Every structure is written in C-alpha cells, then in structure tokens.
Fold:
Amino acid sequence: MKSRREFLINAAASAVLLGASGAAEEWALAGKPSHSFPPRPGEKAKVVIARDASLHGPTTALDEQKVLNLLEKALAAWTGRDKPAEAWKRIVPASVLAGRVIGLKVNGLGGRGISTHAGLAMAVAESLQQAGVRAENILIFERDTWSLGSCGLSVNTDSNRVRCYGNDKSGYEETPVACGPTLVKLAKILTRECAMVINLPILKDHEMAGITFSMKNMYGIVDRPYLLHANNCNPGVADVNAIPAVREKLRFTIGDAITSVYDGGPGFRPERLWYPKALVVGADPVAIDCTAWQMIERKRAEVGMPRLEAVGRRPDYIATAADAAHRLGTCDPQRIQVVEVQS
Amino acid sequence: MLAIVFLSASVGCKTRSANPFPASGAVTGWEKTGDTRTFEAKDLWQYIDGDAEEYIHAGVVLASTSEYKYQNQVEAVVDVYTMGDATGARTIFEKGQTGDAQKASLGDAGIAYAQSVVFRKGPYLVRIVAYEDTPSTQQALIALARGVEARL
Structure:
C-alpha cells in the first residue's frame, strides 16, 4: 500500500501532454453488471454506510490500512461476498476486469482539507489490483492537476503504473453534446480511456446545490460546469448524469464521508468541519445522494442549524434525477435499503 | 501562474495598486510557500466552483490566492477577493458570518475562528484558512491578516 501511494505522491509531475490514446469504450461491449438502477420493481437500491471511528482524528493522519479494511468491509456488505476479489466481480464486469481501463473520479475542488482523500483512492486502486486488475488499467482522474494536488495526489503518466492526471492534460472532445438544454464538451478521459468509472466523491454542503456528493461530482467531466449551476444546480446535475456516456460508464460510487463540511461548503471551512469517518457505497447514484443528504441534515440538526430547505438550498436535483425524464435511480426511501456496518 | 500579482481597485476617485501578499519573513514566523494564482471573475469557477456565483453576484473583479506556512507547523491559504466596491465585500463578509465567530480588529470589519480569519477592507474581502489547529493557530492567522491588511 505504502509503495503504491508513494509512486503518486513522489512522482515528478510529467509534462507529457496526453493525446487521445485508446479507442472509445462502450459499456455495451463490456457487459452489464448484475445490478441495475433505478431498481427493478420490488427491488431496493442498497446503500452501505461503513464507519470506523478510529480512521483518524482532528490532529492525527488518516490510517490508510484502516481505509483499505473499511473499503473491503463496505464492498462485502454491498455484494454479500467476503473476499474482495469476489466482491469486485459483482461490481465490475468480467470483460472490464480482464483488461479495460477503470477510472476513479476523485473530487479536489474544495481545496486541501475537504477533498477526496488520496488514501481512499489508493485503497480502491490497491483492492482492484488484488482482484486482478493491472495497475496500468487504473486511472485516477479529476478536472486538473491542482485539484488532484488538493487530494494529495500527483500526476503520473507512466503507463506501467496506476496513472493519475486531469482533464487539463488529456483535454475535451471537440464536438459538444447535449446536457439538457446546454451544450458541453466531455472529457476524453471519460469518452476515450475509461470503460467504466468508479465515483469517489467527497460529502459536502454546497452553497448552491444544497449538498454535493455522487452525482454532482460528474460536473468534473464537462468543460464548463459553471453553465450548470443555475436554479440550485437543478436540473443541471441530473442532466449531466443523464448524458449517455456518463450514464453508461458511471456504475459505482465509493463516497468519501471520512471528512465533511455540513455548512459553508463546498470550500474548506474548518469551523464547519465534521468527521463522519465513513464510506458510503452503492450503485444507484440517486439513492446514494438521497442518503448523503440525510446525513448532512442530521448533522445540521445536531448542531442546531436549519434544514437546507429553510435556507433555500434543498437539493431538488436529486428528485429530478429520479424523475421519468432522467431515470437515474430512486430517491424513494421505501425503495432504498441503507445498511450500516462498523469496523 | 504569476509569482507576483498586482491588484488594481477603484477606491474613491483614485486607483491604487497593491500586492497584498506579504513576502516570507515579513510577518514573523510566516513563509510564503507558493506562487500566487489569480482568477478573473469569468474564471473564478476554476478555483471555487460552486462558490463562484455568490462572489460574481456580489461584483467580484479578481481573486488571488497564495499558500503560507507558520514555523513549519501550520499551513494556511490566503484568498484575497477584489470586489467592485465596498458593498460587494460587505455582502460576502456578512453572508459568511455565523454566531460563533469572534470579532477581530481587522480592516473595516473582521471575524476569527480557531482556524480561519475573514475581514473586509474597502473593496477587498480577505479569507485566511489554516489546515492545522494548534494553540497558536488563531493568533498566527490574525498576525498574518494584519500583514495582508497593511498592504491593501
């Protein structure tokens, strides 16, 4: 674990500008996973919240081995398979496991202190490798080098190891696509390199959207996300996740709720910092966000803050994502099974 | 990326330029550890995506940011927002206030928390945030804030 983390942290930032290498990958070629979202009639979307109170403290560093252990516990709870390699087979299609690129989309927009922890990204990369995925078929990405740095990650373009770089290096498609009524250009990392994306967002309050977690993290794969912020990001968040390439390739979320801000986000606000010390895992991004929203609301209530609706920031994009026009998942509590596990 | 940034803001009927970022050692114990990055209003989303609209609505002209370290113990980031006028700075300042803030004698108005300091001075809104909470963090941040204030 340590050595793999070091290669990213210590790797000299490469100046290599990556071209549009690799053919476009279609999920249809990779095969469908055994689950679906929205859930089929009679089924529930499972969301696992895995907690470990000893992950870290306000003044102590994140214990990366414990992050890996917690990740594997969460995957076991979600899949019903105790062995990580078997669990991954329930999440990643065999054809992707065998040799296609899996992208890990982190979030570093909030700056240092409130970005996806490098320790989580490396734990996922480590666990995938233990399941047989070759290092070079794992690509950690974000919008740009600076945002990766906020996560504690450095650029690495060495194709023999886990790669890590931003859209600023590989660019965006020339031809825009419809995102609701807006035209956006998609990151080539998504369209050309990754057969599948595992989402690694960080849980935050959001000045406009209300909360940001799974679906909002996909703003990082379009060239001009600021076009999608109107009306509390509704329907912008739902629209970007409904873009066919996003819908097809974003198949799983391993959300970082190790550290969070319950107010004043999405930037780093130490006076509103909170340590849920949890991972939130599932395949249905709407159910994930619905669950995350309630985590934020509970924390706000605990400290005597008003509900997001009362301050004009109810995350209505979550319901929009579940509507008939988007069908990205479910936000019906009766159709969400939240499983809590402790490490 | 610019090593030095010069901010120009209209103050009353005259225009003044300022580099608000103290050099290493200018404030006791503080070292400037990174280059200054600047963002015009149209590009602010690249730095504070999600927060940018709030600043744009309040009339932000320019944002600049730089990182510092205090006695190799506390790392901090200094953000200086140049608004179109003092009203814009006040709008952002007052929106960010919460009941648990301590008043700080900085600029036209200032507040401090254990790990952050925010103040406004004329058209400038300054936010300084530390990544570590130590017994000396708040006082060190206020000292750095005074160093920035003196340059505005």
